[in-house]
Amino acid sequence: MPTDQNRVHEGRNAMKIAVCGYGRAGKAMIESILESNEHELSAVLCRDGSENASGNLSEVLYGERLSRLPDLSITPMSEAVQALDPGQVDVVVDFSHKDSALSFVEMCGIIHSNLVICTTGHSPEEIALVGELATEKSIGVVYAPNLTVGINLLMEFVAKLSKVFGDASFEILEKHPPDKAKPTATAGLIARSIGNGEIPVHSIRLDGFVGVHEVVASNGLERIVVSHESLSRGAFACGALAAAAFVCGKVGLYTMEDVVNDLGE
Ligand SMILES: NC(=O)C1=CN([C@@H]2O[C@H](COP(=O)(O)OP(=O)(O)OC[C@H]3O[C@@H](n4cnc5c(N)ncnc54)[C@H](O)[C@@H]3O)[C@@H](O)[C@H]2O)C=CC1
Ligand SMILES: O=C(O)C1=N[C@H](C(=O)O)C[C@H](O)C1
């Protein structure tokens, strides 16, 4: 029986997945892979110098060895190329730190794995470099500043709204936990899809939010409010699994829009 978290990639091939970063989102990703009963968690990577390097995954995450977790030890990034065999990993999902993106493309080129970059905050130049390197190394990469299927559909809708309501004013409100940088990368993507000059973005930082983006549009006669909320980080894990399934067997750089379009086929 598919769970909510693996519903969107139902029917795709089983994948061997390595996860980098086991903070809030990485942990949700790990749980989602295990819950799928279909995909294999083949490695978990950490930053060099982490106190958890070479530690047992279950003990690091839960303080004890749980039988539902594979008996994996956490691999520091610089040791991954030696530790992982070609074929051991179909796709790496990166929920670690934005500065690691290019090293991950290099690493995936060596171990013949594809890559889903979930971290945010890269410049267009950095993304272009990721794309060039992905093609040079013959691997597929999805760059996904917002992994949720819903936000990507919201962007399609507001793009249409802005075309039809040419004279409307738009503003964006986003709500995230206190440690999230302002504004989100997603707010920038939404503003670009509205494409109607400078769009004001308002940010709220409070405990309890996972991720909310709201677009308010008014032309003085009608007001339209479109809202998306990630209720748990399972929403990000679900999108990352869909992106991972999409990118296996492809070469070059793709976006979440490509993934969502493929889901709708
Ligand atoms: N694209 C999307 O829809 C989403 C993106 N994210 C992104 O994922 C990343 C992680 O988010 P959270 O889990 O909420 O953060 P977090 O702070 O809870 O976890 C980050 C994890 O990465 C590790 N880490 C930090 N620097 C590292 C490095 N250089 N190499 C390897 N590991 C490193 C930390 O030790 C920690 O385990 C952020 O960049 C965030 O913006 C998170 C949620 C959704
Ligand atoms: O880091 C997060 O958590 C999120 N990041 C995304 C971004 O930076 O755009 C947005 C998402 O809602 C949560």
UniProtKB/TrEMBL annotation:
A single GO cellular-component term on record: cytosol
Catalytic activity: (S)-2,3,4,5-tetrahydrodipicolinate + NAD(+) + H2O = (2S,4S)-4-hydroxy-2,3,4,5-tetrahydrodipicolinate + NADH + H(+); (S)-2,3,4,5-tetrahydrodipicolinate + NADP(+) + H2O = (2S,4S)-4-hydroxy-2,3,4,5-tetrahydrodipicolinate + NADPH + H(+)
Source organism per UniProt: Eggerthella guodeyinii
Ranges where the Dihydrodipicolinate reductase N-terminal domain occurs: 15-146
InterPro entries per record: DapB_C, DapB_N, DHDPR_bac, NAD(P)-bd_dom_sf
One GO-annotated biological process of the protein: diaminopimelate biosynthetic process
The protein, known as: 4-hydroxy-tetrahydrodipicolinate reductase
Family: Belongs to the DapB family.
Superkingdom classification of source: Bacteria
Pathway stated in the Swiss-Prot or TrEMBL entry: Amino-acid biosynthesis; L-lysine biosynthesis via DAP pathway; (S)-tetrahydrodipicolinate from L-aspartate: step 4/4
Gene Ontology molecular function, alphabetical: 4-hydroxy-tetrahydrodipicolinate reductase
Keywords, alphabetical: Amino-acid biosynthesis, Diaminopimelate biosynthesis, Lysine biosynthesis, NAD, NADP, Oxidoreductase
One Pfam family matching this protein: DapB_N
The protein's Enzyme Commission number: 1.17.1.8
Keyword NAD annotated: yes
Domain Dihydrodipicolinate reductase C-terminal: 150-259
